[in-house]
Predict the 3D structure of the following.
Amino acid sequence: MTLNKILDKALTWLVPVAILVLWEVSARSGILAARLLPAPSSVALAFIATLRDGSLWANTLISGERALKGLAIGGILGFLLGMLNGLWPPAEKLLDSSMQMLRNVPHLAIIPLVILWFGIDEAAKIFLVTIGVLFPIYLNTYHGVRTVDRGLIEMGRVYGLKPTALLWRIILPGALPSILVGLRYALGIMWLTLIVAETISASSGLGYMTMNAREFMQTDIVLLGIIVYALLGKLADVATRWIEKRALAWHPSYQENAGAAI
Amino acid sequence: MNSVAQLKLKRLEPPDEEEFATPVAERESALGLPVTLNKISKRFGGRSVLNTLSLSIEASEFVAVVGRSGCGKTTLLRLITGLDPVSDGHLAIAGDEVRGLQGRVRLLFQDARLLMWQRVLNNVGISRDTGWRETAKQALQDVGLADRAQDWPAVLSGGQKQRVALARALVSRPGVLLLDEPFGALDALTRAEMHELLIRIWSAHRFTTILITHDVAEAVTLADRIIVLRDGNVALDQKVDLPRHRRSGAEAARLQNIVLGHV
Ligand SMILES: Nc1ncnc2c1ncn2[C@@H]1O[C@H](COP(=O)(O)OP(=O)(O)OP(=O)(O)O)[C@@H](O)[C@H]1O
Ligand SMILES: [Mg+2]
């Protein structure tokens, strides 16, 4: 790494580090009440403590499990519906307008209903996440399939490709950029939904951990929970970027020497 | 006579020499197929593009079609391919009425239409027939792009994309090959190389070839016969009776002038 690059990296970290230092100093000197905003160092201590007693890990795992289950169910449903409606006009006629109507209902608005149906059961949270991720994946899959270059499909047919080959080699790869955009949206919604659901009703998970800490005025643990959420969100984002880079290596904007404006 | 007996009788016949020499797939593709257009018309909505056009193309003939932009050249090829139905008239390949796509006709589209998500080699071997890798490599070598086999199409230049599309059309060894301005984006030198390549492969496999071009000199260089399309019909049907390697003399110039006079 050249000196220039190191300087470049250092510059991006300058502001966050400065804020942390400022925060620590004001918390220690008593300008900030520890009850409202504890020092970064006490958050770090809370991190170590919850790591030691295993509660952080256990709660993160539970939350992660709910998130992934909801994503898997909602994602697969959304993808299949999107493919079906994109490929088969009768299905589109039958289903698409209903999907477009349902998508306008904010999925968090149905929380009371979901609690009535499932109580504070696991199913409630997974159901909410499922509904949350289903729509972005559906919409983007549908859109992706509909906008695959008709000329390429025509070319495939002229060169003798069978319908399954058309699907696997032309339609799916053509729709993939759009599907991955849907996935990225879905991941954001997934965490958001889970935070809300766990905060309102849960007896385990990160949301429960922070709400529980609030009752005992353990502001450091509340902060810790928020930070873990943020990190998980970041992790999801990094994962999609990684997938995009591999799956869309052919795409002009992912090629080496491509402009940095993406 | 029952069918078992028929089968036995057939088996007993001595095998045809030629039949033995080449595998079935090759033999079928080695034969160009005749294309017959009988008073075909094509209308889009109210606009008539082709109007009672009749044309009879012999098996293995090399025909060039020239005409002004928008005169219906691409439309004509799409009809022969079976991508679009004729509005009127009859269109037959080897005597069979064309209804929809068929395996024996290949069309090289005016735009290259490469799959951006497949490597150049996999684009050429799109049919995935047995041994496609080898034939695709050979075809890429022929069009001068052997070293780009593992590149993504997105990084190729316009002319290189056209050459990949040409390689893809050539490996399929069809009965009828339709080429829609395949050399439009090429410089004169590469163009001459591609002409030579096309003639070489055509001479070996003898598929019926219809080439669309804007370049009358190119039509004289390559084709046995030049068709000028105008007002939805054939304005000129000109034989080119010159040996293939001497097509730049006075006679060629005379032919070019005749064709140009009818465009
Ligand atoms: N699908 C379509 N719907 C309506 N009109 C069409 C359609 N396809 C072609 N046309 C019309 O038919 C006419 C001939 O088009 P075509 O593409 O065959 O021209 P061309 O001879 O190939 O021209 P160029 O040399 O510019 O490629 C044009 O006027 C075009 O607008
Ligand atoms: Mg055209």
